[in-house]
Amino acid sequence: MGARGALLVVLLLLLPACGGQADPAPAPADAVRFASYDFPENQILVEVYAEAARRQGVPVTVQHGIGTREVVSPALQQGVVDVVVDYLGTALAFARPGFPRPPVAPDNMHAVLARTMGGRGVDVLTPSAAEDQNGFVVTRDFAAEHGVGTLSGLVPLAPDLVFGGPPECPHRPFCLLGLEKVYDMRFGEVLAMPTRAATLEALLSGQVDVGMLETTDARLAVAPVVLLADDRALQPRENVVPLVRAEVSDRWGERLRRALDETSARLTTEDLVQLNRAVELDGRSPAGAAANWWDARD
To answer: Which residues constitute the signal peptide according to the record (predicted)?
Structure first.
């Protein structure tokens, strides 16, 4: 058994004990299992979509922080989990890493992703207008001192700089790999950060010079940092998109699909920022922020 297979076995054993909220009784056997990636915004999004399903009468469970795509994507395809909320460009790049001339328009990206994942037993639902991309930030003082406002402007400085980002960043096409390929940018040192909050703390303390934060991170509006412009268009469109196991989609039919599609239709990029703010800055739980978001709209 390979490492991925072993991870899935462990995941299968652990999932029944995980959840977004403590339930007074065991979940029904036919509950739809929502799973999130290992960063806060995705946990919030999963709660938003799961709450929509609950309000349509669909029993759900929520498992948070399952891992990176190397774990979550095969878990979805192999029936360990049922629903994942993903981001269009990154989901397509992961599903079709060798795809020649990948499309850039969201409709075309969705079409390719739907064909690819459909052959793996996964339905790709309608993307939301809401999107979140990888962003690269420096402090305001650094930007002013070096006259930097774009990623291109950072290139000649990079060999003398320390970069901080998620542990998987060196292997991601829209993180360090992409910076190397599109910008020919290589940093003098790379530090793995356990969380986005830790990345910001390291940036403000001077431990790192450049950090990766998502473009919808609420801290961008309150911290003394500058989001560098992606002037060579490294980042793809990253519309939020639900992925659902076809078997589960067929079982629940229009009730589940309608709940998820209506969520995507309502969600905006500004909503993502505000939801992130509620959790990251105001201290609400992802489930609480999601419920409040729905209460304000129902």
So the answer is: 1-22
CA distance 276 to 219: 9
CB of 48 closer than 8 Å to CB of 267: yes
Strands (E) across 68-205 are located at 83-87, 122-124, 134-139, 162-165, 189-192
275 φ, ψ to 5°? -65, -45
Domain borders along the chain are 3-131+239-295, 134-227
Report DSSP state, residue 26. P
Query: Could you give the angle at which helices 3-14 and 69-77 cross, rounded to 10 degrees?
Result: 70
CA distance 4 to 9: 9
Same fold, 3-131+239-295 and 134-227: yes
SS3 assignment, position 285: coil
User: Cα–Cα distance between 222 and 277 in angstroms, integer?
Assistant: 10
Cβ-Cβ contacts under 8 Å for 284 (sequence gap 6 or more): 278, 292
Mean pLDDT by 10 residues, the chain (298 residues): 44 45 62 94 97 97 92 96 98 92 94 97 98 98 98 98 96 96 98 96 98 96 97 97 97 96 98 97 96 93
Other beta carbons within 10 Å of 251: 12
Q: Which fold has domain 3-131+239-295?
A: D-Maltodextrin-Binding Protein; domain 2 (3.40.190)
CATH homologous superfamily for 134-227? Osmoprotection protein (prox); domain 2 (3.40.190.120)
Residue 186, pLDDT score: 97
Give me the pLDDT at residue 26, please: 66
pLDDT at residue 27, as a whole number:
75
Query: Counting Cβ atoms within 10 Å, is residue 222 exposed (0-12), middle (13-18) or buried (19+)?
Result: exposed
Structure tokens at 278: 């509620």
